[in-house]
Amino acid sequence: MTLKFADAESADQALPLVLLEKDALAEWLGGQSAATAAWVRASGFEAALGTALLIPGEDGAPKAALAGYGDAAARARGRFHLAGAAAKLPEGVYRLETDLTGDALANEALGWLLAQYAFDRYAKASGIKARLVAPDGVDGRRLETIAAGEALTRDLINTPASDMGPDALEAACRDLASQFGASCDVIHGEALLEQNFPMIHAVGRASAEAPRLIDMRWGKSGPALTLVGKGVCFDTGGLNLKPGASMGLMKKDMGGAATVLGLAHDIMALGLPLRLRVLIPAVENAVSGESFRPGDILTSRKGLTVEINNTDAEGRLVLADALAYGAEESPDLMLSMATLTGAARVAVGPDLSPYYSDDAGVVAALEGAAARVADPVWRLPFWEPYEKMIEPGIADLDNAPKGGFAGSITAALFLRRFAGEGLRYTHFDIYGWQPTVAPGRPKGGTGMGARALLDALPEVLGL
Q1: According to a count of CB atoms within 10 Å of the terminal CB, is the N or C end of the chain lower?
Q2: Where do you find CATH 3.40.630.10 in the chain?
Q3: Distance of alpha carbon 202 from alpha carbon 320, whole angstroms
Q4: Which of the residues 316, 345, 416, 424 is marked catalytic?
């Protein structure tokens, strides 16, 4: 789906759209004609957040529109507020009139683009029909690029596993690589064992579609960035079978892969001066006679042994082999993104992207970027005292510590064991799903943390 601003040729015919805070409404009305002021008052428009109103001219046709921007307290409780008003406007082209500048203006313009999205692969659907002329002072091309990356992520997550298994996820990676002249190598099936990716193979071997490791590379110079995304295309839980209610959303268990692909799209489309590598272990955690079992002990690519105490803690297993592989090249920065634990969702909910990093430079850059681009993150700790919780004694590591405490933290600590000593490593434990409709964010798959990372990378990597 293409999310674009209105053509420049439409600007002259665009309807003025005045963005008004509640406190500014009275002053604005004082500068209007008696007829316009009467119409606005009679319509009950109070510039509340997310409201909109068309103003008729003498011929009855709209001559302008208003969008409510509420007050600071109301705006603090959400984001992409202009998109909420845009959803109430009829189809047409609008030109924004506002005092907003800088990041605030760019975020509202981006929200409008994102509100155009709808997942229409299986049934007719559409986002908002109102189109916006790119406001003066924003980088329209950059915002359209970011919107395209988000649309890619949403499409991949929203597609059910019947059409987004490991084969289709590989095809999506190859399509993206072809679009930007990147390379894409894939290790399939039994070759995973031959080339020492035993845990990716173990998790995915029960599926009708072979497990694989996707390895995409782009860029010839600059610092090296490796993105690792969890690509569990469907998660039954394996032999520790999930109940039906928990399995219903498991098409989104490749949300980490979808998010790193959206971020990779943005990096390549914007031409960031770096060397990009994307590693995606793509599997389905299915049930058959080939399934790995509770009590099994697997030997990872790194040589660490892992006791399987729950086959539903499979994401960290496939990521572990991919992280160990990525660390062998000692990139300047390695990031993993995964829909890894329910504990993270319970801790911070679906709005925040929880992440783990002990790198002060990464943390400072990421927190600043998240605030600038309205992509909120929340730092959780690599809490050293919990290391003993992931050491079962019978093997080096436990994939599912008993007791239920600190599930997201112990998963992050598990992954850190494979990310290389001294390597700059940050892990995101995202939800990847918008459970209710919100401005710029329809219900369904959603990217989390990618925009903040994109904005932070120049500072982190010295670009």
Answers
A1: C
A2: 145-461
A3: 12
A4: 316
Amino acid letter for position 266: D
- What is the average pLDDT value for the chain, to the nearest integer? 97
> Any residues with CB less than 8 A from the CB of 57 and at least 6 apart, and which?
63
242 is catalytic: yes
Q: What is the pLDDT of residues 201-213, one digit of tens each?
A: 999 999 999 999 9
Beta strands in 339-451 (DSSP E): 353-357, 377-380, 397-398, 425-429, 433-434, 444-445
Local structure of residue 432 (DSSP, 8 states): -
Of the candidates 22, 242, 275, 372, the residue annotated as catalytic is 242
- 94 pLDDT exceeds 80? yes
> What does DSSP assign to residue 400?
S
The single residue listed with the structure tokens 């390549």 is 268
| Neighbouring residues of 222: CB distance < 8 A, sequence distance ≥ 6 | 272, 273, 274, 275, 461, 463
Is 443 one of the annotated active-site residues of the chain? Answer: no
Angstrom distance (rounded) from CA 268 to CA 177: 9
Pairing of strands 425-429, 353-357: antiparallel
Topology at the third CATH level for domain 145-461: Aminopeptidase (3.40.630)
Please tell me the predicted confidence (pLDDT) of residue 59.
93
Q: Which of 298, 334, 341 is nearest to 317 (CA)?
A: 298
Q: Please tell me the distance from the alpha carbon of residue 407 to that of residue 313, in angstroms, as a whole number.
A: 10
Residue spans in the chain of domains classed CATH 3.40.220.10: 8-138
Strand 224-229 to 333-338 pairing = parallel
3 state DSSP class of 306:
strand
Give the amino acid at 362: V
Residue with tokens 């009467």: 38
User: CATH class for domain 8-138?
Assistant: alpha beta
Burial class (CB in 10 A: 0-12, 13-18, 19+), 179: exposed
Nearest to 258 by CA among 387, 358, 362, 161: 161
Compute φ and ψ for 68, nearest 5 degrees.
Answer: -80, 140
Q: How many residues does the chain have?
A: 463
pLDDT value at position 404?
A: 85
- Pick from 112, 157, 110: nearest CA to 138: 110
Strands of 38-103 (E only): list them: 52-56, 62-68, 92-97
The tokens describing 68, both together, are 């409510």
In sequence order, the β-bridge partners of residue 353 are: 377
What string of DSSP letters covers 231-277?
EEEEE--TTSPPPHHHHTTGGGGGHHHHHHHHHHHHHHHTT-SSEEE
Model confidence pLDDT, tens digit, residues 410-452: 999 999 999 988 999 999 999 999 999 999 999 999 999 999 9
- For residue 413, give the 3-state DSSP assignment: helix
